[in-house]
Amino acid sequence: MTVLTSALDPAGEAYAERRAAMLAKLADLDAEHAKAVAGGGPKYVNRHRGRGKLLARERIELLLDPDSPFLELSPLAAWGSDFAVGASIVSGIGVVEGVECVISASDPTVRGGSSNPWTVAKSFRASDIALENRLPLINLVESGGADLPTQKEIFIPGGRVFRDLTRLSAAGIPTIALVFGNSTAGGAYLPGMSDYVVMVQDRAKVFLGGPPLVKMATGEESGDEELGGAEMHARSSGLADYMAADEHDALRIGRRIVARLDWRKQGRTPLPAVPPKYAEEELLGIVPEDLKIPFDPREVIARIADASDFDEFKPLYGTSLVTGWATLHGYPIGVLANARGVLFGQESQKAAQFIQLANQTGTPLLFLQNTTGYMVGREYEQGGIIKHGAMMINAVSNSRVPHLTVVMGASYGAGNYGMCGRAYAPRFLFTWPSAKSAVMGPAQLAGVMSIVGRQAAQARGQEFDEEADAQMRALVEAQIESESLPFFLSGRLYDDGVIDPRDTRTVLGLCLSAINSAPAAEKPSGFGVFRM
User: Fold this and answer.
1) Residue 413 backbone zone (phi > 0: left; psi -120 to 50: alpha; other: beta)
2) 487 CB-near residues (< 8 Å, 6+ apart)
3) How many CB atoms lie within 10 A of CB 257?
4) Which residues of 25-63 are buried (b: 16+ CB within 10 A; e: fewer)?
């Protein structure tokens, strides 16, 4: 039988403790998400509404098909920085007229929707997702342009936003701009480089230079409307393809544009999905709060895989890494999941062979991370752990099938790389609130620095300052601990969002559906599978 049997005891004390710890983390996550939803706060939200305008999330909701899901991406962008959580933009994947689209909406209640460094990074990520997965891109525009005090961090890299629009169009992927308010200076190129442009009458303003700049540069006196209003662009410049009567009309027109695209998915058609045998609610009680304690990832697989059915590959070999085949919402997947954290030589070779097999059949790969990295020590170095780890990382790097990654627990050192961390460009990467990621654990890193300092003092013939060393270790441990937490990492867009474990199956299903908007991966050429 390939249906997994769970050993989890939902009535047990360990389960209750883990569940309580996870719920506490989820309460913190809800509080941070609430900051993003609040936008610029009551004052600016009320002022925006007072002008008869819809909020960014209201615009998205009206654009989407009724009762369809919206997978918001990077909602914690800019967390821990000087900028508002969410980075003054809302982005995600939603269904418009039956078509999965990437949607990006500037939030004008946050400093007029101006772009800061994290806004730019979040926009890049949205464009990458649209291009990789062949999803039309819809921009809901109302932005004051660059946040001028941080222009040095925005101006040079920010040009990529417009480059990405042209590359999407060149790839045959539609780009649509619905302009609700200002889109000035460099921001004028956002509608200027989109395939379709809708502008709201008496509200949309698109110009390279506003009236004050034109006055200073040329001495010319011009008003907003004659310089860049919707009617001017619809009648004179031709920038506007459609002029909407109001915001609701603009969203209606946007939906009609998508409906006329005749857009079709080019990937796999999913099989009928069968729910897991075990409740997703139980995912709350699997990961220990102390990540040094291992847990069986099969308990996770049993609660996300269709019918909890899992064909394990090489179950008796390299047992610290679980590999095998399943389906999720009807889509076939290959799973690599850390069982005891450490990756040894056998695990590395097993992973490399499994990845090659997935590429032979074009099967997407799901990486479930809980790893402390590759094993170190004299025995393992002499046994070739470097070349074995390099073999696994090579396989991940050159795999052609889509990768999905979920960081459930620890993600340390080169284990982050071998298990397809952000640097290895998975199509999507999500994190549980229980996760931690760094070059190594806080105590280990502080200890290494202490040993190096002690050796340096001995080499100089100096007495080692034990008190200063203790203070250094405490400070370093605190710093690394804070920088290892999921909110910090998500704020820097090292993932696509921190998610409730109970939502894992749904989130992965939405991602697999989006991935299959693009054609299936090409079958490999050249060498066949090497037995590792």
Assistant:
1) left
2) 28, 29, 32, 76, 79, 80, 498
3) 22
4) bbeebeebbeebebbbeeebbeebeeeebbbbbebbebb
Question: Is beta strand 436-438 parallel, antiparallel or unpaired with respect to 403-412?
Answer: parallel
Residue 472: how many CA atoms within 13 Å on its side-chain side? 16
Q: With contact defined as beta carbons under 8 Å apart, do 369 and 338 qualify?
A: yes
Residue partners of 429: CB distance under 8 A and separation at least 6: 404, 405, 406, 407, 420, 421, 422, 494, 495, 496
Contacts of 51 (CB under 8 A, 6+ apart): none
Structure tokens at 172: 């045959």
Give the number of other CB atoms < 10 A from CB of residue 226. Answer: 12
228: β partners: none
Residue type, 412: Y
Summarize pLDDT for 230-287 with one digit per residue, the tens.
999 999 999 999 999 999 999 999 999 999 999 999 999 999 999 999 999 999 999 9
Note the pLDDT tens digit of each residue in 205-229: 998 776 666 666 677 777 778 888 9
Can you point out the beta strands (E) in 66-118?
A: 70-73, 89-96, 99-106
Q: What is the largest CA-CA distance in the chain?
A: 82
pTM score, two decimals? 0.93
Asked if 311 and 326 touch (Cβ cutoff 8 Å), the reply is yes
Q: What are the CB-based long-range contacts (under 8 Å, 24+) for 521-529?
A: 521/359, 521/362, 521/400, 521/401, 521/402, 522/362, 522/400, 523/359, 523/360, 523/362, 524/356, 524/359, 524/360, 524/400, 528/360, 529/353, 529/356, 529/357, 529/360
In terms of pLDDT, which residue wins out, 34 or 476? 34
Which phi and psi angles does 436 have, rounded to 5°? Answer: -145, 140
The token pair that represents 528 in the structure block:
């066949």
Torsion of CA 385, 386, 387, 388, to 10 degrees: 40
Helix (H, G, I), strand (E, B) or coil at 426: coil
Burial (Cβ within 10 Å: 0-12, 13-18, ≥19) of residue 526? exposed
- Count of Cβ atoms closer than 10 Å to residue 311 Cβ: 12
Return the structure tokens found at 236.
Answer: 């004179």
pLDDT in tens, 485-505: 999 999 999 999 999 999 999
Residue carrying structure tokens 């291009």: 131
**Residue 466 — φ and ψ, nearest 5°?**
-65, -40
Tokens standing for 204?
């949309």
Sign of dihedral through CA atoms 107, 110, 112, 117?
negative
Query: Would you state the pLDDT for residue 148?
Result: 65
Cβ-Cβ contacts under 8 Å for 275 (sequence gap 6 or more): 306, 307
How far apart are alpha carbons 399 and 222 in whole angstroms?
A: 56
Question: What are residue 200's DSSP bridge partners?
Answer: 244
Mean of the pLDDT values across residues 18-46?
96
User: Is the separation of the CB atoms in 240 and 207 below 8 Å?
Assistant: no
Q: Which of 345, 341, 340 is nearest to 385 (CA)?
A: 345
Per DSSP, the three-state class of 437 is strand
Element (DSSP H or E) covering residue 243: strand 242-244
